[in-house]
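Hello again, I could really use a second opinion on something today. I've been puzzling over a protein and I'd love to understand its fold better. I'm sending you its amino acid sequence along with the backbone structure tokens. It would help a lot if you went through both lines with me. I've dropped the whole record in just underneath, so have a look.
***
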Amino acid sequence: MSKTTNDIRVPDEIRQTALNVRDHAYVPYSDHPVGAVLISESGKTYAGCNVESANYKGLCAEASAIAGLVSSGERQIRTIYVIGPGEHLCTPCGDCRQRIREFATPETEIIVLDGEGAPLKHYTMDELLPDSFGPENLNRTSGMATTR
């Protein structure tokens, strides 16, 4: 069950990192900057922003942060924070939900922040992507496969 915003505490360091990385987004086409900060199972922080290109094949903030996680040799997300430009919910897109799922556990928390870094909504992986398809469906042992 989801936590209420009153139950969610966003550490100041995470909030500031989310604001800073979002401000680095390259969004000349959509003008919709997004930042993502994830905490790995080891406790290390990875941040990413969205990067657009003229061919419209941009990179989402969540994918950018996950690339840092994987590039550093880590494979599990404990918590991921997503911040957009305003007061509305800026949840991960469908592709990013699947990317997060690849490196999530059933305990992974997805927290969406408002434009100032305050929590708007908390999700579990099953709430964000119910009845999901993952590595275990391909007889692979990665992602949530080992814990489901």
